[in-house]
Automatic annotation (TrEMBL):
UniProt keyword annotation of Transmembrane present: yes
Organism: Prolemur simus (Greater bamboo lemur)
Gene Ontology terms: cellular component: endoplasmic reticulum membrane; nucleus
The entry's keywords: DNA-binding, Endoplasmic reticulum, Homeobox, Lipid biosynthesis, Lipid metabolism, Membrane, Nucleus, Transferase, Transmembrane, Transmembrane helix
PANTHER family referenced in this protein's UniProt entry, alphabetically: CERAMIDE SYNTHASE 5, LONGEVITY ASSURANCE FACTOR 1 LAG1
GO BP annotations, alphabetical order: ceramide biosynthetic process
Pathway(s) served: Lipid metabolism; sphingolipid metabolism; Sphingolipid metabolism
Positions of the Homeobox domain: 92-136
Record protein name field: Ceramide synthase 5
Enzymatic reactions: sphinganine + octadecanoyl-CoA = N-(octadecanoyl)-sphinganine + CoA + H(+)
Compartments, record wording: Endoplasmic reticulum membrane; Nucleus
A Pfam family the protein falls into: TRAM_LAG1_CLN8
Highest taxon of the lineage: Eukaryota
């Protein structure tokens, strides 16, 4: 049984990393084992350095939210208090948890007779109890401010790095000499930090506020990690840096719009969201153009 499982895993691994699929003709993975220049070529073992970096990023986040984001939230008028607490009542709590959070008229009348409360008072209790489960705005502000800060910082780093890179000014350079494109120190740091950040989001999603789009965001982080990892291992890092930088530009604008919304700066929120939408739409033709060039060079 163990031998069969190992053989199946070997076939799957061989299919996943098929040289015919990932690399141009007459190029093998062994060709990328050479020294190259600087940091050599990207290798799969480099990915393991991501996990301690991700743990460090998560630790920095905890300090940032407590000592920087929270004071900023209080400064813009976001209260450090949760929603109104519902009056403790065992019967209503049992109905709320086990039966319904939105009792109908018949159930309200039955509870009114049982507790000797007015129907209006019971309705208020359920409303307060529902609000009690909603995450406080202060927590949402701190989470968004952390993401905004990281996306802005990594975007600035990306622009500074790409400004001196030839493929920033001529996109065709992304595929010039592919896959024999040496890995520089700046490119290595850029990729590792991006990948580590998304791994930290993957971990922290289980401790952050549980939102309705939890599963969608989990799949988003998983796909993003997969794309960054695969593009690194098969040395598509040049085009990868351009796409990551463009994504970061739209992401920090989106988080900025959320911050403005939490702080009730509605006009600023609307303006930032319009700019975010425009930047996000730019990514579609850019990605299509790069994939068409990739297809051309891999013929």
């Amino acid at each position: 049984m163990a031998t069969a499982a190992a053989g199946l895993l070997g076939l799957l691994w061989g299919w996943l990393w098929s040289e015919r699929f990932w690399l141009p003709q007459n190029v093998s993975w062994a060709d990328l084992e050479g020294p190259g220049d600087g940091y050599g070529y990207p290798r799969a073992q480099h990915i393991f350095s991501v996990f301690p970096v991700a743990a460090g990023i998560f630790s920095v986040r905890l300090l940032f939210e407590r000592f920087i984001a929270k004071p900023c939230a209080l400064h813009v008028g976001i209260e450090d208090s949760g929603p109104y607490q519902a009056q403790p009542n065992a019967i209503l709590e049992k109905v709320f948890i086990s039966i319904t959070k939105y009792p109908d008229k018949k159930r309200l009348e039955g509870l009114s007779k049982q507790l000797d409360w007015d129907v209006r008072k019971i309705q208020c209790w359920f409303r307060h109890r529902r609000n009690q489960d909603k995450p406080p705005t202060l927590t949402k502000f701190c989470e968004s401010m952390w993401r905004f800060t990281f996306y802005l910082c990594i975007f600035c780093y990306g622009i500074r790095f790409l400004w001196l890179s030839p493929w920033f000014w001529d996109i065709r350079q992304c595929w010039h000499g592919y896959p024999f494109q040496p890995l520089s120190r700046g490119l290595y740091y850029y990729y590792i930090m991006e990948l580590a950040f998304y791994w930290s989001l993957m971990f922290s999603q289980f401790t952050d506020i549980k939102r309705k789009d939890f599963l969608i965001m989990f799949m988003h982080h998983l796909v993003t990690i997969g794309l960054i990892t695969f593009s690194y291992i098969n040395n598509m890092v040049r085009v990868g840096t351009l796409i990551m930088c463009l994504h970061d530009a739209s992401d920090f604008l989106l988080e900025a719009a959320k911050l403005a919304n939490y702080a009730k700066y509605q006009r600023l929120c609307d303006t930032l969201f319009v700019i975010f939408s425009a930047v996000f739409m730019l990514m579609i033709p850019f990605c299509q153009f790069n994939f068409s060039i990739l297809f051309y060079f891999c013929q």
